Amino acid sequence: MTAVAVDLPTPVYVDDDVERRNQAALDRADRAVRTAPAAPAAVANAAKPAAKAPAKPAAKPPTRRTAPAAPRADGSVDTVVRFALAQVGDRYDWAASGPNSWDCSGLTAGAYRQIGIYLPHQSEQQRRYGRAVSRSQLRAGDLIFYKGHVSLATSNGMMVHAANARRGVVYEAIYGTPEAYRRIVG
Predict the structure, then answer these.
(1) In this predicted model, what pLDDT tens digit does every residue of 43-64 receive, in sequence order?
(2) Cross-strand pairs, 144
(3) Of 20, 46, 126, 166, which sees the most CB atoms within 10 A?
Protein backbone atom coordinates (compact mmCIF):
# COMPACT_ATOMS: atom_id res chain seq x y z
CA MET A 1 0.00 0.00 0.00
CA THR A 2 1.39 3.41 -0.98
CA ALA A 3 0.86 6.50 1.12
CA VAL A 4 -0.49 9.53 -0.74
CA ALA A 5 0.33 13.06 0.40
CA VAL A 6 -2.59 15.46 0.30
CA ASP A 7 -2.24 19.23 0.51
CA LEU A 8 -5.18 20.67 2.41
CA PRO A 9 -6.02 24.34 1.98
CA THR A 10 -5.53 26.70 4.87
CA PRO A 11 -8.85 27.43 6.60
CA VAL A 12 -10.37 30.82 5.87
CA TYR A 13 -12.07 32.66 8.72
CA VAL A 14 -15.23 34.62 8.07
CA ASP A 15 -17.01 36.92 10.50
CA ASP A 16 -20.79 36.99 10.93
CA ASP A 17 -21.20 40.30 9.04
CA VAL A 18 -19.40 38.94 5.98
CA GLU A 19 -21.50 35.79 6.15
CA ARG A 20 -24.73 37.84 6.31
CA ARG A 21 -23.62 40.06 3.40
CA ASN A 22 -22.70 36.99 1.34
CA GLN A 23 -26.07 35.41 2.06
CA ALA A 24 -27.84 38.64 1.11
CA ALA A 25 -25.80 38.75 -2.12
CA LEU A 26 -26.75 35.16 -2.90
CA ASP A 27 -30.42 35.96 -2.27
CA ARG A 28 -30.20 38.94 -4.66
CA ALA A 29 -28.52 36.71 -7.25
CA ASP A 30 -31.30 34.13 -6.90
CA ARG A 31 -33.87 36.83 -7.59
CA ALA A 32 -31.83 38.15 -10.53
CA VAL A 33 -31.54 34.68 -12.07
CA ARG A 34 -35.29 34.05 -11.70
CA THR A 35 -36.12 37.38 -13.37
CA ALA A 36 -33.29 37.36 -15.95
CA PRO A 37 -34.33 37.75 -19.59
CA ALA A 38 -34.44 34.51 -21.57
CA ALA A 39 -33.11 35.95 -24.83
CA PRO A 40 -30.13 38.28 -25.40
CA ALA A 41 -32.40 40.78 -27.23
CA ALA A 42 -34.39 41.27 -24.03
CA VAL A 43 -31.27 42.46 -22.16
CA ALA A 44 -31.32 45.82 -23.94
CA ASN A 45 -34.77 46.55 -22.51
CA ALA A 46 -34.10 45.18 -19.01
CA ALA A 47 -34.40 47.51 -16.04
CA LYS A 48 -31.31 48.41 -14.05
CA PRO A 49 -30.83 46.48 -10.80
CA ALA A 50 -31.91 48.16 -7.57
CA ALA A 51 -29.30 50.19 -5.70
CA LYS A 52 -27.41 48.36 -2.99
CA ALA A 53 -28.29 48.99 0.62
CA PRO A 54 -25.90 51.29 2.51
CA ALA A 55 -23.13 49.61 4.45
CA LYS A 56 -24.01 48.64 8.01
CA PRO A 57 -21.90 49.90 10.90
CA ALA A 58 -19.42 47.50 12.44
CA ALA A 59 -21.01 45.12 14.90
CA LYS A 60 -19.52 42.67 17.36
CA PRO A 61 -16.00 41.24 16.99
CA PRO A 62 -15.70 38.48 14.37
CA THR A 63 -16.28 34.88 15.32
CA ARG A 64 -14.12 32.21 13.74
CA ARG A 65 -15.68 29.87 11.25
CA THR A 66 -13.90 27.76 8.70
CA ALA A 67 -14.78 27.75 5.02
CA PRO A 68 -15.24 24.44 3.19
CA ALA A 69 -11.93 22.63 2.82
CA ALA A 70 -12.34 21.91 -0.89
CA PRO A 71 -14.71 22.81 -3.71
CA ARG A 72 -17.62 20.45 -4.28
CA ALA A 73 -18.06 18.93 -7.71
CA ASP A 74 -21.82 19.55 -7.60
CA GLY A 75 -23.22 23.01 -6.98
CA SER A 76 -19.83 24.74 -7.03
CA VAL A 77 -20.36 26.45 -10.34
CA ASP A 78 -23.78 27.64 -9.20
CA THR A 79 -22.12 29.38 -6.24
CA VAL A 80 -19.57 31.01 -8.55
CA VAL A 81 -22.23 32.32 -10.95
CA ARG A 82 -24.55 33.49 -8.17
CA PHE A 83 -21.72 35.42 -6.53
CA ALA A 84 -20.76 37.13 -9.82
CA LEU A 85 -24.38 38.02 -10.60
CA ALA A 86 -24.79 39.53 -7.13
CA GLN A 87 -22.08 42.07 -8.07
CA VAL A 88 -24.03 43.45 -11.06
CA GLY A 89 -24.28 47.21 -10.62
CA ASP A 90 -21.00 47.47 -8.68
CA ARG A 91 -18.36 49.96 -9.80
CA TYR A 92 -15.39 49.09 -12.04
CA ASP A 93 -11.98 50.12 -10.73
CA TRP A 94 -8.73 48.98 -12.30
CA ALA A 95 -7.00 46.34 -10.11
CA ALA A 96 -9.97 46.17 -7.71
CA SER A 97 -11.09 42.88 -6.20
CA GLY A 98 -14.20 43.79 -4.21
CA PRO A 99 -16.23 44.03 -2.18
CA ASN A 100 -17.89 47.07 -3.86
CA SER A 101 -15.74 47.57 -6.96
CA TRP A 102 -14.07 45.15 -9.36
CA ASP A 103 -11.96 44.82 -12.44
CA CYS A 104 -12.55 41.91 -14.82
CA SER A 105 -10.05 39.44 -13.38
CA GLY A 106 -10.80 40.53 -9.81
CA LEU A 107 -14.46 39.63 -10.35
CA THR A 108 -13.73 36.17 -11.77
CA ALA A 109 -11.09 35.48 -9.11
CA GLY A 110 -13.50 36.65 -6.39
CA ALA A 111 -16.26 34.43 -7.74
CA TYR A 112 -14.09 31.32 -7.78
CA ARG A 113 -12.64 32.18 -4.37
CA GLN A 114 -16.15 31.49 -2.99
CA ILE A 115 -15.59 27.78 -3.59
CA GLY A 116 -11.94 27.66 -2.54
CA ILE A 117 -10.33 28.07 -5.97
CA TYR A 118 -7.76 30.86 -6.02
CA LEU A 119 -7.18 32.30 -9.48
CA PRO A 120 -4.52 34.96 -10.09
CA HIS A 121 -5.65 38.56 -10.44
CA GLN A 122 -4.71 38.96 -14.10
CA SER A 123 -6.76 37.82 -17.09
CA GLU A 124 -3.79 36.45 -19.06
CA GLN A 125 -2.70 34.35 -16.08
CA GLN A 126 -6.25 33.08 -15.52
CA ARG A 127 -6.20 31.90 -19.12
CA ARG A 128 -3.67 29.23 -18.11
CA TYR A 129 -6.08 27.58 -15.64
CA GLY A 130 -8.67 24.90 -16.30
CA ARG A 131 -9.13 23.31 -19.69
CA ALA A 132 -10.02 24.69 -23.09
CA VAL A 133 -13.59 24.29 -24.32
CA SER A 134 -15.29 25.42 -27.52
CA ARG A 135 -18.11 27.95 -27.69
CA SER A 136 -20.58 25.14 -28.36
CA GLN A 137 -19.42 23.43 -25.13
CA LEU A 138 -19.71 26.61 -23.04
CA ARG A 139 -21.47 26.18 -19.68
CA ALA A 140 -22.26 28.43 -16.74
CA GLY A 141 -19.08 29.18 -14.81
CA ASP A 142 -16.71 28.92 -17.77
CA LEU A 143 -14.36 31.84 -18.34
CA ILE A 144 -14.59 33.79 -21.61
CA PHE A 145 -11.41 35.54 -22.75
CA TYR A 146 -11.08 38.56 -25.00
CA LYS A 147 -7.83 40.41 -25.63
CA GLY A 148 -6.87 41.70 -22.17
CA HIS A 149 -10.30 40.90 -20.68
CA VAL A 150 -12.11 38.02 -18.98
CA SER A 151 -15.79 37.40 -18.23
CA LEU A 152 -17.86 34.62 -16.68
CA ALA A 153 -20.44 32.65 -18.67
CA THR A 154 -23.84 32.36 -16.98
CA SER A 155 -26.30 30.56 -19.27
CA ASN A 156 -28.22 30.95 -22.52
CA GLY A 157 -25.46 32.92 -24.26
CA MET A 158 -25.13 35.41 -21.40
CA MET A 159 -22.17 36.53 -19.30
CA VAL A 160 -21.36 38.73 -16.32
CA HIS A 161 -18.22 40.87 -16.26
CA ALA A 162 -16.63 44.05 -14.98
CA ALA A 163 -16.85 45.88 -18.30
CA ASN A 164 -15.24 49.29 -17.79
CA ALA A 165 -15.37 52.42 -15.61
CA ARG A 166 -18.44 53.78 -17.42
CA ARG A 167 -20.56 50.59 -17.24
CA GLY A 168 -19.26 48.76 -14.15
CA VAL A 169 -20.27 45.14 -13.56
CA VAL A 170 -22.89 44.11 -16.11
CA TYR A 171 -24.93 41.08 -17.18
CA GLU A 172 -25.27 40.89 -20.95
CA ALA A 173 -25.12 38.70 -24.04
CA ILE A 174 -21.75 37.27 -25.04
CA TYR A 175 -20.53 39.63 -27.76
CA GLY A 176 -17.90 39.73 -30.48
CA THR A 177 -15.40 36.96 -31.04
CA PRO A 178 -13.77 35.81 -27.82
CA GLU A 179 -10.23 34.45 -28.10
CA ALA A 180 -10.69 31.49 -25.75
CA TYR A 181 -13.02 29.70 -23.34
CA ARG A 182 -11.76 27.84 -20.26
CA ARG A 183 -13.58 25.49 -17.87
CA ILE A 184 -12.24 25.75 -14.32
CA VAL A 185 -14.58 23.23 -12.63
CA GLY A 186 -16.11 20.12 -14.20
Answers:
(1) 333 444 444 555 544 443 433 3
(2) 151, 181
(3) 126
Q: Where are the beta strands (DSSP E) in 69-176?
A: 91-92, 101-102, 131-132, 143-146, 149-153, 158-164, 168-173
pLDDT in tens, 113-134: 999 999 999 999 999 999 999 9
CB-count burial class (<10 Å; 0-12, 13-18, 19+) for 119: buried
Q: Which amino acid is at 177?
A: T
**What's the predicted TM-score (pTM) here?**
0.61
Q: Give the active site residues.
A: 104, 149, 161
- Torsion angles phi and psi, residue 112, rounded to 5: -70, -25
Paired sense of beta strands 91-92 and 101-102, if any: parallel
Adjacent-strand bridge partners of 66: 13
